[in-house]
Design goal:
elongated, mainly alpha, 3 domains, two-stranded antiparallel ribbon
């Protein structure tokens, strides 16, 4: 008990620092990785770091103080108060775990208003005439700056995501002139290859700003935004889109909109200088006690950890696409020019998104007999089937040919829709392949039904066709991804998706269990696979013969000329339709989960 009483506060502060270091290192990883382990660690560290630091600050208010001139234990314990304030300001890489944290920005302001007097009271309460007290001031300044930057960033994201200010043509013209002035200046110098890609990405981001609800889909910004897109290769188009989404992620979830300003840089330098001043002062005042007093050793290690965290963040600060944009106005300086050349070359090689696509094959799911050890336990609570959905999903690397076909078809759709809302999900493709009359029925039904029957038909055609082609593989890849999105109905914002899915799962599983796996394709291509009627069906699925419709569609597709060109184009159209009509909140959520190809499509088609 005596050990806990003497070291409990120090333990809480140490744990708070460890969680903050984890967030500083892994916080930015979630935009390029969908790994569950990383997401879990960040999910746990984000609230625990704040909770433990707040708890430590609370215990500091009740600690017994010794104001003896000879004793320095009080100074060491109370120095933890401003240090805890610094830890309560989140790392640069993660100011908000989710969009909801941005909406609670004003609550963080209230927390600061409450926390600040407590820290001041702890310092005043322990005040005594000692030279060691000077360590409080630089640490206190650094803590106020760190916490203030977090609130500033949260408020900035909240203010932009709720801004409904009307947009005028003058706003667009002003931003356009600024962009082309910088671009012209850069082209005249011709000293940094590929820098134009960064400007194009920032232009897409700055003109449309997908996180600004007031400017989203505004006609003034859509008219000119994609004009030069034809000059880029599909790989460059995806790279530009990834950069655009990176800027958006930075605004929504990090301190980027604060740090990459003159005031932000100035505050960061002041904060870092104050931390170095605290560390240097501590080493000078307690140098003779380093190897003798465990409190001194602990405090020295803690300060080293804080300084190392800030050093890491400072280095990461200059390794960003934001820097490439912000320092372009200073290219006349040879040192800046060399640094920019190095930065562009390095930046082009770094990973920006997960570049993976989630897959869920409905027929394989129905036929799968794999069951994890805890499946029977979940079955008792009615969660087995839902868990199995998530358990059997998989992800694949997005091949280059898929990106090429996506960009090719999206450019065609962009011309067809002429900047109007994306309301078509296959009519343009059917019309181009002269199949509108015989297949229009399959895309005029509700979107969830259409996805299911096209998914089953694509599966049947894929495994019954032995000729390989990029269109065939792309069709299968997007088909399985659209089915993955359907089993996550909140992404597609389909109110009937869950009911439609369960109806199809029940019918399909009952039907497939009657046959051996090797005969499934033959049965699905048979004249009439049949389907039992159920008087207890939901109203929205009553009378829907999913097997018959999927069989009819598969037969029609197999008899169509250029089958896989048509199927791949239909699936791209469905993906674009889903991306355009997906809620912006869901796109923002996907950004912090490694990204998704549906968000890329949305950024391209806005």
């Amino acid at each position: 008990m005596c050990l806990w009483k003497n070291w409990s506060i120090q333990l809480f502060v140490l744990l708070g620092l460890i969680f903050q270091i984890i967030l500083a290192v892994l916080g930015s990883r979630r935009k390029i990785s969908s790994a569950k382990t990383i997401r879990f660690v960040i999910w746990a560290s984000y609230p625990l770091g704040s909770y433990i630091s707040t708890h430590a600050l609370g215990k500091l208010t009740s600690v017994s103080l010794n104001k003896s001139e000879e004793e320095y234990d009080t100074e060491l314990i109370v120095l933890l108060a401003p240090l805890t304030l610094l830890l309560l300001g989140n790392p640069d890489s993660i100011t908000a775990y989710s969009m909801e944290d941005n909406w609670l920005g004003w609550r963080r302001v209230l927390n600061l208003i409450v926390t600040f007097p407590f820290v001041v009271w702890i310092l005043v309460r322990s005040w005594k005439t000692s030279i060691r007290m000077i360590l409080y001031f630089p640490m206190f300044v650094a803590g106020i700056i760190e916490y203030g930057e977090t609130i500033w960033a949260l408020y900035s994201a909240y203010d932009e995501s709720t801004n409904m200010t009307p947009v005028t043509p003058g706003d667009f013209n002003e931003e356009k002139e600024m962009f082309f002035a910088l671009l012209t200046r850069m082209n005249c110098q011709k000293v940094i290859p590929d820098q134009e890609i960064y400007f194009e990405a920032y232009y897409w981001f700055d003109c449309l700003k997908p996180h600004l609800l007031g400017r989203l889909k505004h006609p003034f910004f859509k008219l000119d935004r994609r004009c030069p897109i034809n000059q880029y290769s599909p790989e460059d188009v995806f790279l530009i889109t990834e950069m655009e989404l990176g800027f958006t992620y930075g605004v929504l979830y990090t301190k980027a909109p604060v740090l990459y300003t003159k005031l932000g840089i100035t505050l960061r330098v002041i904060s870092y200088f104050n931390l170095l001043l605290t560390l240097g002062g501590f080493m000078g005042l307690f140098f003779d006690k380093f190897l003798r007093d465990p409190y001194v050793i602990y405090m020295f290690g803690l300060l080293i950890g804080v300084v190392l965290r800030e050093t890491y963040q400072l280095l990461k600060l200059f390794n960003s696409d934001w820097v490439i944009i912000k320092i372009t106005n200073h290219l006349e300086n040879p040192m800046v020019l060399k640094f920019l050349q190095f930065l562009v070359k390095r930046s082009l090689k770094k990973e920006r998104r997960s570049n993976r696509i989630w897959q869920f094959n409905f027929l394989d799911f129905c036929l799968s007999e794999k069951q994890p050890w805890h499946f029977k336990i979940l079955k008792l609570f009615g969660k087995a089937e839902k868990f199995k959905r998530y358990w059997l999903k998989k992800s694949m690397q997005i091949p280059k040919y898929v990106k090429e076909l996506l960009v090719k078809d999206m450019k065609k759709f962009e011309i067809k829709r002429d900047y109007r809302p994306f309301t078509k999900r296959g009519q343009w493709s059917l019309g181009a392949h002269e199949s509108l009359d015989k297949l229009e029925w399959s895309i005029e039904m509700t979107f969830d039904r259409s996805i299911i029957i096209w998914h089953i038909a694509t599966h049947v055609c894929y495994h019954s066709c032995h000729k390989n082609s990029n269109n065939k593989e792309t069709s299968k890849l997007i088909s399985d991804h659209m089915m993955f999105l359907l089993v996550h109905p909140q992404i597609l914002s389909l109110t009937t998706a869950e009911i439609t899915y369960h109806h199809t799962y029940t019918k399909l599983k009952t039907f497939l269990n009657k046959f051996a796996k090797e005969n499934i394709l033959k049965v699905l291509l048979a004249p009439d696979p049949g389907q039992e009627c159920n008087s207890f069906e939901a109203v929205i699925t009553k009378g829907w013969n999913v097997l018959e419709e999927a069989r009819t569609l598969a037969r029609e597709l197999k008899s169509t000329k250029d089958t896989w060109q048509l199927v791949s184009s239909i699936w791209v159209g469905m993906l674009c339709f889903a991306a355009y009509n997906c809620q912006q909140y869901q796109h923002a959520k996907l950004l912090r989960q490694g990204g998704d190809i549906i968000t890329h499509d949305a950024a391209f088609n806005e």
